[in-house]
TrEMBL record:
Gene Ontology biological process terms in this record: glycerol catabolic process
Gene3D superfamilies reported for this sequence: 1.25.40.340
GO MF, one annotated term: glycerone kinase activity
GO CC terms of this entry: cytosol
This protein's UniProt keywords: Kinase, Transferase
SUPFAM superfamilies from the UniProt entry: DhaL-like
Pfam families named among the record's database cross-references: Dak2
Residue ranges of domain DhaL in the record: 4-203
Listed PANTHER family: TRIOKINASE/FMN CYCLASE (PTHR28629), TRIOKINASE_FMN CYCLASE (PTHR28629:SF4)
Source organism (scientific name): Micromonospora matsumotoense
Record SMART domains: Dak2
Name used for this protein in its record: Dihydroxyacetone kinase DhaL subunit
NCBIfam families registered for this protein in UniProt: dha_L_ycgS
Length: 207
């Protein structure tokens, strides 16, 4: 991943979130407070716009800048989670380009930050349920010597599968956990956003 691809990733996420804003909010209306699409749209619109004024010299600078904007503009539970995650991903890449293996380690740092902040484990019906299988798939391909396109496509597929697997779960973290068993049967909105983020990576890589 080089600086241009990092930029393209953020712009692609912003486009996907804009397109899926109503769906994300609709998912959050079932088990939350119906603001997830609005939150993510506000954050990624700001992050994407901020990139235009930035002349980064590392991949990390792009992603740290994005995370900082998300922290300021997303709000809710997901602001610190995605903001912290992007900052953590960026903080591991101090170079103008990262190898696919280095990006795997960066994505692992992002998940570690989400876990550190939110204390969710797989099965709690959160962002973690999409990010964990996405990272595993990405790493598996990277370790086998696959190129970034193949790793990113595998990660996007795994994230979507992880998102779908949140439906039968009962939420144990975040607002949806207040619903108890009534959270069962709905997709987790944050896992849906995470799937968008990994699909956007694959799309940006293969564009
Ligand atoms: P809020 O719930 O504050 O309105 P959002 O609607 O933007 O915030 O985001 C909700 C999403 O945040 C949930 O669908 C879930 O994926 C994620 N989330 C909430 N709490 C946690 C947590 N502790 N760990 C990981 N993800 C979480
Ligand atoms: Mg919400
Ligand atoms: Mg809210």
């Amino acid at each position: 991943m080089d600086i241009n691809l990092a930029r393209a990733w953020v712009h692609t996420i912003a486009g996907a979130v804009a397109e899926q804003k109503d769906r994300l909010t609709w998912l959050d209306s079932a088990i939350g407070d119906a603001d997830h699409g609005t939150n993510m749209h506000r954050g990624f619109t700001a992050a994407s716009a901020a990139l235009d004024g930035l002349v980064p010299d590392t991949v990390g600078a792009v992603l740290i800048g994005t995370g900082t904007m998300l922290l300021s503009f997303v709000g809710g539970a997901s602001g610190p989670l995605f903001g912290g995650a992007f900052r953590a991903v960026g903080q591991t890449i101090y170079t103008p380009a990262a190898t696919t293996q280095e990006l795997a380690e960066a994505l692992a740092a992002g998940l570690a930050e989400v876990t550190q902040i939110g204390a969710a484990v797989p099965g709690d019906k959160t962002v973690v349920d999409a990010w964990t299988p996405a990272l595993a798939a990405f790493r598996h391909r990277a370790d086998a010597g696959a190129d970034l396109a193949e790793a990113a496509l595998a990660a996007a597929d795994a994230a979507e599968e992880g998102m779908r697997a949140t439906a039968p779960l009962q939420a144990r973290r975040g607002r949806a956990s207040y619903l108890g068993t009534r959270s069962i049967g709905q997709l987790d909105p944050g896992a849906a956003s995470t799937a968008l983020i990994f699909r956007a990576l694959a799309d940006a890589v293969t564009a």
